[in-house]
Amino acid sequence: MNWITNFVRPRINSMLGRRDIPENLWIKDPESGEMVFHKDLEENQYVIPSSGHHMKISAKERLRFFFDNGEYALLENPKVPLDPLKFRDEKRYTDRLKDAKSKTQLEDAILNATGSVEGLPVVATVQDFAFMGGSLGMAAGDAIVHGFETALNLKRPLVLFAASGGARMQEGILSLMQLPRTTVGVDRLKEAGLPYIVVLTNPTTGGVTASYAMLGDVHIAEPGALIGFAGPRVIEQTIREKLPEGFQRAEYLMEHGMVDMVVSRLELRSTIARLLKILLKAPMPVAPIEPEILPPARPALEARPGV
Fold first, then answer.
1. Comparing C-alpha atoms, which of 212, 218, 210, 229 is closest to residue 254?
2. Fold for domain 57-279?
3. Beta bridge partners of 27
4. DSSP secondary structure string for all residues of 165-199
């Protein structure tokens, strides 16, 4: 049986021209169950065309979609101790970090980059949920502060894309200390008169919403994003009441004044550029005025005899 399986069947398949099809060519829409070809989805910035559902994307993809021509320069993040508390649960914290780095090809959950958006120089800070749920630890906190300092030194606005489950429990109090540190970074940026725009993506929860993610000049949310401090299930168990439909979703929060606008990812870049031009008092492009076409003048009536 092994000889047939391992030798005869592969030879027959190769003779017939059979090829293995990758499993990730088609992606299922979580809302409708529709199958979407991955190339079409990538060209649409991972927004399902039929339902408008926004899929999670990596930090590098986010930067590529955001900056002009997808061109940007990554900033080197500060180095911090990997395991300050020597934490261990089911496995060592250092092993969890190694797994996350291998999976995402990132050093931690934050990427900082410089580039331009419709010609405006901007600093962007992006949180990647794939790296340990975008949790906020010492490395992420230092990276965010570094992003603010870079914006101050270059005198550029900062756009932050938040995606997080909250503080990183493996770093305990050292993780919670990043909340006031990042808040000071926000204050310094505002004192310098530089715009700070926050884009809340799915999900943005925990201590992140208790600090830098809710301190922007303008808060933009992607459609359907879960935004809040505690999760809906925890709140229901605490207050012992059923929460309203769509509670803590972007649209619900905009109706109740928690976010300024809900913007599709496809329109995010142009919307942010327009907001920055307003906040920086930059000249807005003026549409050319088309000359008004007047109807031809009627010939004057000749005076008739006796009139």
1. 218
2. 2-enoyl-CoA Hydratase; Chain A, domain 1 (3.90.226)
3. 36
4. --B-GGGHHHHHTHHHHHHHHHHHHHHTT--EEEE
DSSP for 193-225? T--EEEEEEEEEEGGGTTTGGG--SEEEE-TT-
Q: Are strands 196-205 and 158-164 parallel, antiparallel or unpaired?
A: parallel
Give the integer Cα–Cα distance in Å for 196 and 260: 14
Question: Strand 110-117 relative to strand 73-74: parallel, antiparallel, unpaired?
Answer: antiparallel
- Sequence ranges of the chain with CATH classification 3.90.226.10: 57-279
Q: Which amino acid, one-letter code, is at 284? A: M
For the chain, the straight-line distance linking the first and the last C-alpha, in angstroms and rounded, comes to 116
Q: Which residue's structure tokens are 């970090």? A: 97
pLDDT of the chain, 307 residues: tens digit per residue = 565 665 556 665 565 554 554 556 888 888 777 888 888 899 999 999 888 999 999 999 999 999 999 999 999 999 998 899 999 999 999 999 999 999 999 999 999 999 999 999 999 999 999 999 999 999 999 999 999 999 999 999 999 999 999 999 999 999 999 999 999 999 999 999 999 999 999 999 999 999 999 999 999 999 999 999 988 888 999 999 999 988 999 999 999 999 999 999 999 999 999 999 999 988 766 556 666 665 665 555 555 555 4
Output the six-digit token pair for 274. 């327009």
